[in-house]
Amino acid sequence: MDRSLFRYVWQTSRREQMLILGVVLVSLPFYFISLDLPKYIVNDAIQGRSFSGGKTEAVFMPIAIHAPAWLGGFQLKIFDGIPLERIPYLFGLSGLFLILVLINGAFKYWINVRKGALGERLLQRLRYDLFSTLVRFTPESFRNVKPSEMATVINNEVEPIGGFVADAFIAPVFLGGQAITALVFIIVQSPSLGAIAAIIVVGQALLIPRLRREQLRLGKERQMAARALAGQIGEVVEGISAIHSHGTAPYELARVDRRLNQLFTIRFKLYNRKFMVKFINNLMAQLTPFIFYSLGGYLALTGRLDIGQLVAVIAAYRELPPPVKELIDWDQQRLDVQVKYDQVIEQFANSPQIAPPGPAPAAPAFGVSGLEVSQVKVADSRGHVLLDNLSLSLPLPAHVALTADGGDGPDILARIMGRQLLAFSGKVRVDGEDVTTLPADFVGRTIAYVGPESVIFQGTIRDNIAYGLHLRTPEAGLAASDTDWLDYEVAAASGPEDLDKRIIETLRIVGLDETVYRFGLSGLVKKKRFPGLAERVVEARHAVVKALEASGSSQLIEPFDPSRYNRNATVSENLLFGIPIGQTLAGDGFIDHPFVRGTLAKSGLTADLEDMGAAIASTMLDIFADLPSDHFLFQQFSFIRSEDLPDFAAIMTKRGRGDVLAEGDKARLIGLTLGYAEPRHRLGLIDDERERRLVEARHLIRSTIPADLARAIEFYDPDTFCKAAPLRDNLLFGRITYGVAGAEARVLSVVRDVIAQLGLDDDVYRLGLDFHAGAGGRSLTPAQRAAVSLARVLVKRPSILVINDALVQFGDAERKAIFERIVEATAGRTLLFVLRGKDDAAVFDHVVAFAGPRLRGVTDQRHSTGSAPLAASA
Amino acid sequence: MALEAEVETLRAVPIFRGLDPRRLKLIAFTSQRLSFRSGDVMFRQGDDSDCAYVVLVGAADVVIDTPAGPLVVSRIGSHSIVGEMGVITGAPRSATVVAQTEVTVLRLPKDHFLSLLEEFPQLSLAVMRDLAHRLEATNRLLAARAEPAKH
């Protein structure tokens, strides 16, 4: 990117700029004519100069080209004109003026639209350029970069630059052109008036920016002061406990007061300056008409200027200040934007960039002959040596453990090998190729690094694991979807389905299979994505019932049976007998719906439910009345929120007196019954008779539901897949019996067996892979995030896999298991593993041991007979 | 009413004896009624102590692992509370409890139980008394075992 803003703009948009500039130039003559025309209207038509000497007609709009005298002075007539009487002549000229106004407006419109588009295009380009610079930063330079700052720069700070670049060349030409045209016009009419106008305009143009520059400086000062104030307030808020404990509040107050005072002083200066500029500006704008009226009037009266000219000059002068003012604004913006651009460029240009890649090795396999490290030295920013003159050579492929008794040696070497660290001296070669200059996409295919911090992108678990496979540049360009970028070959897969299989295998290695399976069970099955699965799930549903019966545990689950009350489900679940879609029938809205209320009344349930509600209310009042309102038992167990308790107490008192309750009160009591399930709450409120009536109401709801409301619910049907319910609920199709210890685990294990028998395992996993990881992986636990990061590198089957402390998030037993599976999965390829402790060293071919920044020795364990440390070059 | 019956049972549990019936109702209502089959492990030695159980009906054995194999140290029956010690100390389960008959319990999650102790000093006192009794019993047992060893 060019350091000069104007050069950058010109380089990136030359053609478009020239086109617009051309149109600007073409528009100027029209502008001139529109200034000139009033003169004729006043002189010829209104004052009647063309009709002097008793003429009743004048020629309207003759068009001819007068060649200057030095060209022979001939005249070329294009249009002879139309003879018109005085009034039509006036209207003709006025009409012409109107047409010119429209033409000028059209020019302005076109120029503005193109300018806007040009600005947006340039902004897009600028952001893209900045972003592409950003992704080429070396890993080291990212250490000094704040993510939010970079996002702000690319997103917000360049915004005003984008607004300006469209104007960079066009505004001065367009506005300057207009101003000069107007000025030239005035000079042509009257050189003396023109001279005055020119002096004032030039004076304005010189003086105002000078004043404004000071204003700009003050503005910047104000911004800094405001930023400092914000910083101080933030600091106080963060350190408030320290301020309280030290009693330094008055001190902090005084400090903030000082800043506020400073801010006031700056702002006051700014106002003075601002209104002074305004005053001078206005004065000059008003002064000129004074001169024009007096001097121009005098010239007109003495006959040296005609009235038409005077009117036109005054009109033209009115046109003069806006472009001049805008030009001054443009100049100010230029200064402002130039500063911003410089800042942005400095931030980006000063960060070292990854060296341009060399050619990719032509060999079909990589990492097959050996690793050669010579004289590698790494120091941190303070010059502290982290790795000192490391030289070693190892045959590849091999499993290599990097160990140390303190020091960062293993970490540094792992990061160099994973291309996370490029600022080192010396050479690291694999198969004779310098790893620092290998092209990025080649590295993406052959070397994979995973460190202690898991990186999770927004998207599904599948997106995250397959992230490293986005290595194929699709031909479709911008139209390509994200999946078009996937290079299935890298994962040794033939297509999307096959890739899912590879990913599932990888899940087993990193111990994430159980989790993803669980996610799958809680996922919604979309028919489009999983054709045929819904039908199989219904089949599985029946198989689950059979399997439970066969194992004598059919009592563990109470299936949804349209003709029976489900005791383990709540009252509302039993009434609705389906899953609400959208908000109409969801939650408490269900009972408030007029249709539901009407149906309950029709089936004679209203009184029943009211009685039940009253029983619940009295129990709640009994239990919770004297518990503190913020007690957690309240929030978890009470059917009534603490703030509603008094209301219900009042309702119950009324009811106790035998008063007739208001409809609203009744509804509130009925509302309490919605979440009630007998085995869970055990208040003994639902007997066989009530069950029968609730089921009746259920049938009535289903059979009489209006068509528009039917869209708000998906009813349960034992033989149909329920789209709105998660897979698990579709498989169980019932409620797990409440109060039987271990029921859920036993049922789920049966469900699992059935899924496996029907061969649906992979579908469940695939559904689980659709689970969204959330922003920054917030929907996952730290261990799950680490597992996903590991899976991402494993699925690529890299020739060289570098694992640097990536297993720290796992518990001991799990870490060991994952470690062993990784070692097994990478057999025949290279694994560089930073090893803590020495327990697992035995499985490696070589152990590279560090002592502080120095190499202590390399042990070859392949023919391990009393492994003597190799001579290490230091 | 099932809840009322549970309240009656709770009243018979020594540590809940002096408690207001309303509190007993609160405890019953906020705890989960669970049933175990004969032979089910209610919790295992070394597990997290996430709840205490009040046995409503049934009997269970308290078993500890010893180098010589599992050793039944006591049997608990209806109206007893089990697992509350780990809940109070935060230590893992010190023994395994196995249902010997069909057992119905009220499950008091750890948070509930601790908050009950905080809220109702009567209950804390009762728990302390119970623990003290048990400690005393253990001491006596140890003394009795140590006696014959001297001979």
Structure description:
The complex is a heterodimer of chains A (874) and B (151). By secondary structure, chain A is α/β, with parallel strands linked by helices. Chain A folds into 4 domains: 1-190, ABC transporter transmembrane region fold (Up-down Bundle); 192-304; 371-458 and 785-860, P-loop containing nucleotide triphosphate hydrolases (Rossmann fold), CATH 3.40.50.300; 561-715, no CATH class. Helix content of chain A is 57%, strand content 10%. In chain A, the strands form 6 sheets. Chain A has a 6-stranded mixed sheet, with helices on both faces. Chain A has a 4-stranded antiparallel sheet with strand order 6-5-8-9, covered by helices on one side. Chain A has a two-stranded antiparallel sheet with strand order 1-4. In chain A, a hairpin with a 2-residue loop joins strand 8 and strand 9 (433-434). In chain A, helix 20 crosses helix 23. The longest helix of chain A has 53 residues, at 249-301. Chain B has one domain (2-139): Jelly Rolls, CATH 2.60.120.10. Chain B contains 5 helices and 8 strands. Chain B has helices spanning 2-12, 21-30, 84-89, 110-119, 121-150; strands at residues 32-36, 41-43, 51-57, 60-66, 69-76, 81-82, 96-99, 103-109. In chain B, the strands form 2 sheets. Chain B has a 4-stranded antiparallel sheet with strand order 1-8-3-6. In chain B, strands 2-7-4-5 form a 4-stranded antiparallel sheet, with no helix packed on it. In chain B, a hairpin with a 2-residue loop joins strand 4 and strand 5. The mean pLDDT of chain B is 86. At the A-B interface, helix 20 and helix 21 of A face helix 1, helix 2, strand 1 and helix 4 of B.
